[in-house]
């Protein structure tokens, strides 16, 4: 039996990260936060600092904005990992001009290889209008494909809206 993968989906500011952190804390395991955000401006730095403060000192933070695979493969079986978030990881890939198919394949393989349970946070971006520019449309399509692949691989999928979780697949343990 492989460790469980849980996908937590939601819109921006939906409460998905708070919910995911609650799931991690409930395991009672040592907590690893795999951060994919890059703070290029003051607003993003403030958001990152807020998340760090809210989590507190019981979390080990690993920054992996482009390649979470090595970190996922090093997490011990007695730990639990929160990867927050797949959307930022995807944005980083697009901005770096990487081969999205190869990067996604490596990311999904690393999730499968992780010895510990992993909770992945990702944004649901498909409920909005069709973007007016090519990069935004490319991102929306890639995010949809990534979420579909993550949901297929996950044991449990939870949609969070207005802070309220709805289990779409599997069950919360």
Written overview of the protein:
The protein has 173 residues and is an alpha/beta fold. Helix content is 45%, strand content 24%. It is built from six helices and seven strands. It has a seven-stranded mixed sheet, sandwiched between helices. Helix 4 (86-96) packs across helix 6 and helix 5 (100-113) runs parallel beside helix 6 (134-153). The protein starts with a strand and ends with a strand. The mean pLDDT is 94.
In short:
The chain has six helices and seven strands. It has 173 residues and is α/β, with parallel strands linked by helices. Strands 3-2-4-5-1-6-7 form a seven-stranded mixed beta sheet, with helices on both faces.
Keywords:
173 residues; seven-stranded mixed β-sheet; 6 helices; 7 strands; globular
Largest sheet: 7 strands, mixed
| Radius of gyration, CA atoms, in whole angstroms | 15 Å
Percent in helix: 40-55%
Shape: globular
Mean pLDDT across residues: 94
Q: Helix/strand/pairing class, anyone? A: alpha/beta
Strand order of the largest sheet: 3-2-4-5-1-6-7
Number of strands: 7
SSE pattern: EHEHEHEHHEHEE
Total helical elements: 6
Percent of residues in β-strands = 15-25%
Query: What are the low-pLDDT stretches, counting only 5+ consecutive residues below 50?
Result: none
Distance between the termini: 15 Å
């Amino acid at each position: 039996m492989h460790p469980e993968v849980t996908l937590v989906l939601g819109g921006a500011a939906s409460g998905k990260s708070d919910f995911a952190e609650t799931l991690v804390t409930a395991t009672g395991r040592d907590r690893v936060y795999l951060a994919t955000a890059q703070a290029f401006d003051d607003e993003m730095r403030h958001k990152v600092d807020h998340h760090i403060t809210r989590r507190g000192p019981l979390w080990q933070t690993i920054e992996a904005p482009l390649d979470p695979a090595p970190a996922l493969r090093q997490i011990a079986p007695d730990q639990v990992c929160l990867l927050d978030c797949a959307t930022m990881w995807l944005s980083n890939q697009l901005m770096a001009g990487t081969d999205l198919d190869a990067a996604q394949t490596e990311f999904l393989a690393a999730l499968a290889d992780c010895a510990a349970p992993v909770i992945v946070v990702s944004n649901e971006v498909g409920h909005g209008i069709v973007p007016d520019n090519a990069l935004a449309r490319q991102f929306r399509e890639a995010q949809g494909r990534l979420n579909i692949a993550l949901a297929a691989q996950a044991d449990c999928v939870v949609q969070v809206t207005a802070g309220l979780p709805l289990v779409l697949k599997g069950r919360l343990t």
